[in-house]
Structure formats: structure tokens, C-alpha cells
């Protein structure tokens, strides 16, 4: 009998353990419009993540002719390994992606990225991009979208970093110029089958709005959510769990959350998937970090925080927000080069008296710049804007207090290099340094016997941020080194601090 009890107990705990592994995160919504993660109320403190390097175009984008091709961040392990700890340090708990689900060929790399997100305490909103130009009434188009979406759901549903599935982004604004009922019926079809495949995660769709002189007539999520005639009501979209909205109205949301009438429009909770402001100020013809951080992001997050369902305050309808965006993207203006930081406005908000033009290439809460415009225009350093610390003061005030204290070192963390080992003559190894102040970073390479091999071009730091140095495996004569062990001495010098670290580097051919 004792042996039988042991076997039953072993079977029970084995089944429990397997269930935990298979479905490490259970995400639901309740009747109080709360998002629950493993049964506990959860507020999204998120960042839109698409860290396109200078010189490239974002995945799915239409690049100017000089761009070096599309960039898929989940295949760039060195970048997200460096970024995710910084996002976590800011106090964010979520990243939102745009087309991470579209390609099954990168599934193994996506899972690796999810592993790193989980290790850094980040959940992931898994985005599927639906083209804005295809005919959504076409049976073949609908079948392809459904098939790709379900393939991705089945590929990633068991990963504990997955928070929710997001189908489409602002397709309500054009719907491929087809009847909007085609779009909302496709959402219901996709959500229904995704729920059957994965009952452990919630599904959302992201609605945009177009206001003012850019739109005739005005197009907004307020016109669509709950609209019976186009199939956007709760009955027609019974398998959709959450409405997500992208809202840019100025320093405040101008009553958007109060205008969403939950007695007639929907009972579903709302996620603000995009909010924020660019850092370019037209009246000054210059970057204005104070404007971005204090005039816009500060009051915007406070307003989101004042209407959270998790705390039952205000309208108690919001499950959080995701700031747009982590870093500047230089490719977005089609009128200039992918290596030019353009300032033409993407859209205008006439009600925004302070800065009505919104420049698409300047929305980052971190700025980017080429490592070296002549020799490596494709790589990019990353510098924190004030908006980073503004959000950190809300999301992780303890980290903000530590950050404002006088730093004791030039480097704020260990310098790492990726990949390591690296293949000489194929992909360079990237040294990523997190620094506290302005100064210079230099690096010297030595072989295992201590003989000098090469030095890397110095990098000038303008302030706290993330900076990169690349070694392609060449020695000072310009020849590729042999396979073996090398040592890098990385030194940082500023006005107040001098610091150095060593890294082992393995080169292979």
C-alpha cells in the first residue's frame, strides 16, 4: 500500500510538473476587466521593441533604395541580449513585438529570444502583422493569415514568456480598402481557432486612430469598437479578449478612456499598445528630450495609471500601456536614406498646441547612432534619453534613486561580447559596454602569449547608455588571426572615472 501511495504521489507530481512546464504561464481576463497572469492581477508596463540598426529597414517595411535589407531583431542575439537587461532595469515587465509570428523559418531563434526575455523578467506580446494592402475578402488571403497565425501559436504557446497574441496593427484604418466587416470577421475566425489551439493565453487586436487634417473623414477606434454594423461588437467578436489601442493625442489622452462607453460599446478591457511622443521639436528645429519626457510621457503614463483595472481606479478599464518605442528607427521616412535621421512629420495633431508634428524616426526612449559612419554604418550605439528615466521613476523608483547617485565606476556593468566564440571573417564579435558618463572607450586585443594583436577604433560616449565596439578578427596588419584564445582589454575614461575590464575571446575559422 505504501508503495502504491508513492506511485500515485509520483504520478500526481509528475503530471503537475509537466503541466507547469507545458503551460508555464496562464493568462486570462476577468469580469472586472483585469488581466490575470497565473491568477494574479497584472499591469502591462511595456515597451514597443523593434531595434532596427542604422542602415537597415524594419521587418516588413518598404525601404529606400540605399537600405541594406530588412532587419529581424530576433535573429540578432547580441542586440537583444544587451537590450533586455536595460529594459528590465527601467522597470518594464513586457515588450510588444510587431511581426514576430509571421515567419515559421525563424521559430528556433524566436524561442531563444523568448528564453532571454524570460530570464530578464519580461513577458512578450506576440505580434502578427496583417498587410494593409491585401484584399481581406479574398479566401486565399484569409486562409494564409489563419494558417500562419496558428502555426506560430502552436510553435510558441508553451513558452512561459508569452503574454498574449496580437493579430494585426491598425488595420481598422484601411482594411486593405475593403469592407471593414471582412477585417472583423477574420479576427473572430482567427481568435476562435487560436483559442482552440491554446486556451491558456488571451488574444487582442490593435486599433489605430486617425484624426485632424490627416484624415477625411476622421477614423478612430472610437468609431469602430462595439459597432454592430461592421461586426465589431462583443457578440460578433466573442473570442477576442482585449481591445488594444494606439493613441497619440498630445500631452494627455483628451478623454479617450472616458469616451469608451463600456455600457454600450464593449465589456472587454483596454490595453494602450502605443503612447508617447517623438523627441524632435519643430519650433526649436532640434532634439528636445525634456519635451518628450516631461511634457508628454510623464502625464500620459500618469493618466494610464489613474484608470487601471488592476487597482480599480478611475474608469478601471485599462490593463496597462506600452510606450512607443524602445529606440529610434532611421529607416521610416521613405524620402531619405536609411542612414539619415530624417525630420519630416509622419502625422499632425492640431489639438496639440505644444508640438503638433510627430516625427516617425525620433520616437525612441533611447537614441541610436552609427558606431562609425565610415567603417560601420550598420551598427549602432544606444544612448538613454530622459524619457527612459522618467518611466523608470514610475516603474522602478528604487533603480532611479540608485541611478541618480554619483556613479563609482565608468562602466555600470560587465562588458560582454557576442558571439563568443566568433567565426573570423564571417561575423564580428560585438563588445557591449554600459557606461555611466561621457568619455572614451578603447579596446586592445592580445593573443594567449600576451603579444599585442590589434586595437579597435575608440568610441566616444556622450552620457549614460549602451555603446558597442566590433572586432572582425583582423590583426594590426589587416590579416585575419588564427583560431585560438585572445584577450581584450577594454578601458573607459571620463572626467571623473577611469575603468578597465578584460574579456576572453575565442576565434575560430
Question: Strands, helices and their partners?
Answer:
Blueprint: H1 2-22, E1 27-29, E2 35-37, E3 40-41, E4 44-48, E5 57-58, E6 70-71, H2 77-90, E7 94-96, H3 107-119, E8 123-128, H4 139-156, E9 162-169, H5 180-197, E10 202-207, H6 221-224, E11 242-246, H7 256-259, E12 270-275, E13 280-281, E14 286-287, H8 289-305, E15 318-323, E16 345-348, E17 357-359, E18 366-372, E19 376-384, H9 386-395, H10 397-404, E20 416-418, E21 422-423, E22 429-435, E23 439-447, E24 452-461, E25 465-471, E26 484-494, E27 498-508
Parallel strand pairs: 4-7, 4-15, 5-6, 7-8, 8-9, 9-10, 10-11, 11-12, 12-15, 21-27
Antiparallel strand pairs: 1-2, 2-3, 13-14, 16-17, 18-19, 19-25, 20-22, 22-25, 23-24, 23-26, 26-27
Which terms summarize this structure?
Immunoglobulin-like; eight-stranded parallel β-barrel; 509 residues; 2 domains; 25% helix; globular; single chain; alpha/beta; five-stranded antiparallel beta sheet; TIM Barrel
Compact overview of the structure:
The chain has ten helices and 27 strands. It has helices spanning 2-22, 77-90, 107-119, 139-156, 180-197, 221-224, 256-259, 289-305, 386-395, 397-404; strands spanning 27-29, 35-37, 40-41, 44-48, 57-58, 70-71, 94-96, 123-128, 162-169, 202-207, 242-246, 270-275, 280-281, 286-287, 318-323, 345-348, 357-359, 366-372, 376-384, 416-418, 422-423, 429-435, 439-447, 452-461, 465-471, 484-494, 498-508.
Amino acid at each position: 500500500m505504501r508503495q502504491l501511495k508513492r506511485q500515485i504521489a509520483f504520478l500526481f507530481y509528475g503530471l503537475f510538473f509537466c503541466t507547469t512546464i507545458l503551460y508555464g504561464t496562464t493568462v486570462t481576463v476577468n469580469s472586472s476587466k483585469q488581466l490575470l497572469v497565473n491568477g494574479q492581477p497584472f499591469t502591462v508596463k511595456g515597451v514597443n521593441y523593434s531595434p532596427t540598426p542604422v542602415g537597415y529597414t524594419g521587418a516588413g517595411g518598404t525601404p529606400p533604395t540605399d537600405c541594406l535589407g530588412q532587419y529581424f531583431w530576433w535573429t540578432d542575439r547580441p542586440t537583444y541580449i544587451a537590450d533586455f537587461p536595460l529594459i528590465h532595469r527601467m522597470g518594464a515587465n513586457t515588450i510588444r513585438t510587431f511581426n514576430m509570428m509571421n515567419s515559421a523559418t525563424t521559430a528556433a531563434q524566436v524561442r531563444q529570444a523568448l528564453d532571454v526575455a524570460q530570464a530578464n523578467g519580461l513577458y512578450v506580446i506576440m505580434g502578427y502583422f496583417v498587410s494593409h494592402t491585401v484584399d481581406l475578402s479574398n479566401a486565399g488571403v484569409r486562409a494564409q493569415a489563419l494558417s500562419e497565425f496558428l502555426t506560430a501559436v502552436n510553435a510558441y504557446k508553451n513558452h512561459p514568456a508569452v503574454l498574449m497574441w496580437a493579430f494585426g496593427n491598425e488595420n481598422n484604418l484601411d482594411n486593405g480598402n475593403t469592407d471593414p466587416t471582412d477585417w472583423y470577421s477574420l479576427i473572430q475566425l482567427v481568435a476562435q481557432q487560436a483559442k482552440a489551439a491554446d486556451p491558456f493565453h488571451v488574444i487582442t487586436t490593435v486599433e489605430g486612430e486617425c484624426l485632424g487634417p490627416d484624415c477625411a473623414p476622421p477614423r478612430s477606434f472610437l468609431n469602430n469598437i462595439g459597432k454592430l454594423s461592421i461586426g465589431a461588437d462583443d457578440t460578433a467578436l466573442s473570442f477576442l479578449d482585449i481591445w488594444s489601442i494606439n493613441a497619440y493625442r498630445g500631452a494627455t489622452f483628451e478623454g479617450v478612456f472616458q469616451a469608451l462607453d463600456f455600457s454600450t460599446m464593449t465589456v472587454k478591457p483596454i490595453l494602450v499598445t502605443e503612447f508617447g511622443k517623438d523627441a524632435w521639436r519643430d519650433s526649436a528645429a532640434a532634439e528636445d528630450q525634456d519635451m518628450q519626457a516631461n511634457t508628454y510621457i510623464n502625464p500620459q503614463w500618469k493618466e494610464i495609471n489613474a484608470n487601471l483595472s488592476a487597482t480599480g481606479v478611475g474608469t478601471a478599464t485599462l490593463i496597462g500601456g506600452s510606450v512607443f518605442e524602445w529606440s529610434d528607427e532611421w529607416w521610416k521616412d521613405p524620402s531619405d536614406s536609411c542612414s539619415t535621421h530624417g525630420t519630416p512629420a509622419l502625422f499632425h495633431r492640431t489639438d496639440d498646441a505644444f508640438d503638433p508634428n510627430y516625427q516617425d524616426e525620433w520616437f525612441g526612449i533611447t537614441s541610436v547612432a552609427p558606431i562609425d559612419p565610415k567603417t560601420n554604418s550598420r551598427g549602432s550605439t544606444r544612448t538613454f534619453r530622459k524619457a527612459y528615466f522618467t518611466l523608470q521613476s514610475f516603474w522602478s523608483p528604487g533603480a532611479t534613486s540608485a541611478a541618480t547617485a554619483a556613479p563609482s565606476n565608468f562602466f555600470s556593468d560587465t562588458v560582454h561580447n557576442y558571439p563568443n566564440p566568433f567565426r573570423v571573417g564571417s561575423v564580428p564579435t560585438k563588445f557591449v559596454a554600459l557606461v555611466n558618463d561621457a568619455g572614451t572607450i578603447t579596446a586592445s586585443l592580445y593573443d594567449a602569449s600576451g603579444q599585442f594583436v590589434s586595437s579597435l577604433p575608440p568610441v566616444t560616449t556622450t552620457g549614460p547608455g549602451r555603446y558597442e565596439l566590433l572586432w572582425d578578427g583582423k590583426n594590426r596588419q589587416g590579416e585575419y588571426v588564427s583560431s585560438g584564445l585572445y584577450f581584450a582589454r577594454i578601458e573607459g575614461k571620463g572626467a571623473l572615472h577611469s575603468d578597465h575590464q578584460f574579456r576572453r575571446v575565442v576565434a575560430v575559422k
